[in-house]
């Protein structure tokens, strides 16, 4: 069977599609899979061993002037790549108008979420087969259900499956990765909290690595690392080089971010700090993943602006409530099966 997946972005959404692809590869011998994805995420898609070919879609450059984009050389190249061969099934796992449009450029029967299940209901009109999968479960589970229904196999177990296999970085000093970067200011943790956690990790013999992807993250990373020799700031790297660094970590602490979802998918002990977003529907999904969720009545508000502290530039109250020591204890539950670091022989907890 030959299948085309359409899941264009974002990083976390793409990662949430990996479990469904793993299900399909196990259930269907000889499955051939191509994937249409935003060009910046091609290295990420290629990490999954079931992907034969990633078809880059330069949406960010093409969407400025759709008509000109359609007629451009890049537009013609995308159309030619999508129509190069016929597929037994085209799976739109995104449910947006843009993903539905890309799906229509390929040859084969299109499958996707039904009107009430798609993120943009009108996108469902582009599919030959539609599936009602209500938004009451984690997005990764919903996509697993979509693939199973479209490709005709059963899902006996909906627990997170084995981790995505990526060789870890070269061994050295054990380290913890702190993923502080995120798109909304309401999803950030304060520099003070990150520094406290880094100091706790250092006192327990772990080095600390932080990424600096863009100007805002660089400023925050520098503030976290100031006068803390155990903290190393890593430069911007492509996803296929970031993944081994995450895979080699003793643990990852993350806010709601795409790289956090990738760490969870890699099977690394990953602790998520959640405030305004709903971890139940779009939280971490992996065999060693756990979230600390906000306990305030206003959370999750699903808002990029905090109503009770509107002038807060980082670390709104629901996020500041997460203490560094509590985060460390929770991470150790994932690492050792016990909050006490001395329990090094205990079996790791699974989600």
Topology (elements, then pairings):
Blueprint: E1 2-6, H1 11-15, H2 18-27, E2 32-38, H3 42-45, E3 51-57, H4 59-62, H5 66-71, H6 73-82, E4 86-92, H7 97-104, E5 107-113, E6 129-131, H8 139-151, E7 175-179, H9 191-203, E8 207-211, H10 215-225, E9 231-234, H11 239-247, E10 251-255, H12 258-265, E11 270-274, H13 279-282, E12 289-293, H14 317-320, H15 324-336
Parallel strand pairs: 1-2, 1-4, 2-3, 4-5, 5-6, 7-8, 7-10, 8-9, 10-11, 11-12
Helix pairs in contact: 2-8, 9-10, 9-15
Structure summarized in a few sentences:
This protein is α/β, with parallel strands linked by helices.
Describe the structure.
This protein is an alpha/beta fold and 351 residues long. The chain folds into 2 domains: 2-151, Glycogen Phosphorylase B (Rossmann fold), CATH 3.40.50.2000; 175-336, 3-Layer(aba) Sandwich (Rossmann fold). Helices cover 35% and strands 19% of the residues. The protein is built from 15 helices and 12 strands. The protein has helices spanning 11-15, 18-27, 42-45, 59-62, 66-71, 73-82, 97-104, 139-151, 191-203, 215-225, 239-247, 258-265, 279-282, 317-320, 324-336; strands at 2-6, 32-38, 51-57, 86-92, 107-113, 129-131, 175-179, 207-211, 231-234, 251-255, 270-274, 289-293. The strands form 2 sheets. A 6-stranded parallel sheet has the order 3-2-1-4-5-6, sandwiched between helices. Strand 4 (86-92), helix 7 and strand 5 form a beta-alpha-beta unit. Helix 2 (18-27) packs parallel to helix 8 and helix 9 (191-203) packs across helix 10 (215-225). The chain is globular, with a radius of gyration of 21 Å. The relative contact order is 0.12.
